[in-house]
């Protein structure tokens, strides 16, 4: 790579001369000798190889054996975390807080609505982005972003080489996907943090329409080992719509998406305490909760037409969030086929329709016509594929077969 940048071959003698050391010393360094470089030597190598800022920073960290050990992020109920969470809650765009190990330790309402997975215990940006099937569907250019995420993960490993959790995360990711392992072994990119970066994503909360986002990363001075990321839409995607352009996140156009009881991210001691936030007439959703997994308890609040989503954390407490029923439904479409879950699924689906019965029926008729046509299109595609590849595709009946 350095030779490509310079337009000529860089020799071992060149590097040895730049560091004012012998060729043998540099050969030992290339062979993995545990030799610490001075800052001057690092800067000389950086100048010779035309290293960027992040690459030079990584070389300095390597020569020093890493940065100061990253401590655990302050507990949620500390003044520092409360202040940062308040800043998150003030953002109108999706925003989250990550610790030095890429764990999600804070988020605001828009983020949990766009990306419900952030509410899962052990939610980790790198694990989800690189290993989950969901991420590969969400990000239009997933392969391009994967290279960047691995570069940031590699920088974290250089920054904290003795951190067991980061080491375990790296091992889990590169051993969990052969393609990622190959990228890890073949490339050497390092990135401390992206500047303004652009994504094209397809999210269920926006009816899988492709939208463009710009991410900005900030490092809070009070939490130097953490980073705050704010996602800003570059086009108008304020409302999740169905195929007809109707807002499907709230039953009424002016319906509330929050009952105002939750001042952002909160934590309680029991799931029963969390369910109280659903208000009068709360309805437990035990089957959907079990399907969601991860120690999850879902409770529907009829008065607000929202769902209280509680997840058990490692310390035994329960994090509580209030979400629109749409957020639950799109997360688990398979629930409609599970025995016993249909009533709970129907309850949440009804909550997405207008309150007035006549308006609700009219809306269901419109949606039924749309869905029926979609089914017909899928059946037509099935038939086309069968007629083209009869030896490999299962037969599908068509009226012409009876003629």
Question: Can you put this structure into words, describing what you see?
Answer:
The protein is an alpha+beta fold. The protein folds into four domains: 2-51, no CATH class; 79-233, Beta-Lactamase; 266-351, no CATH class; 366-402, no CATH class. Helix content is 43%, strand content 13%. The protein has 17 helices and ten strands. It has helices at 2-6, 12-19, 23-30, 39-49, 53-64, 79-89, 109-114, 125-131, 133-138, 142-159, 164-176, 178-186, 271-275, 286-292, 325-331, 342-351, 357-388; strands at residues 95-98, 104-107, 197-202, 210-218, 227-233, 266-268, 283-284, 296-301, 306-312, 318-323. The strands form two sheets. Strands 2-1-5-4-3 form a five-stranded antiparallel β-sheet. Strands 6-10-9-8-7 form a five-stranded antiparallel β-sheet. Helix 15 packs across helix 16 (342-351). The longest helix has 32 residues, at 357-388. The N and C termini lie far apart (67 Å). 29% of the residues are buried. Mean pLDDT is 79; it is low at 237-261. Residues 255-264 have a biased composition (Polar residues). InterPro entries: Lambda_DNA-bd_dom_sf (IPR010982), MLTR_LBD (IPR041413).
What is the CATH architecture descriptor of the largest domain? 2-Layer Sandwich
**Distance separating the two termini:** 67 Å
List how many beta strands DSSP finds: 10
**CATH C-level category of the largest domain:** Alpha Beta
Reported for the largest beta sheet, the result is:
5 strands, antiparallel
Number of helices in the DSSP assignment? 17
The SSE string, one letter per element, is HHHHHHEEHHHHHHEEEEHEHEEEHHH
Oligomer: single chain
User: Which range best describes the helical content: under 10%, 10-25%, 25-40%, 40-55%, 55-70% or over 70%?
Assistant: 40-55%
Q: What does the overall shape look like?
A: globular
Spans of at least 5 consecutive residues whose pLDDT stays below 50 are 237-261
Sequence of strands across the biggest β-sheet: 2-1-5-4-3
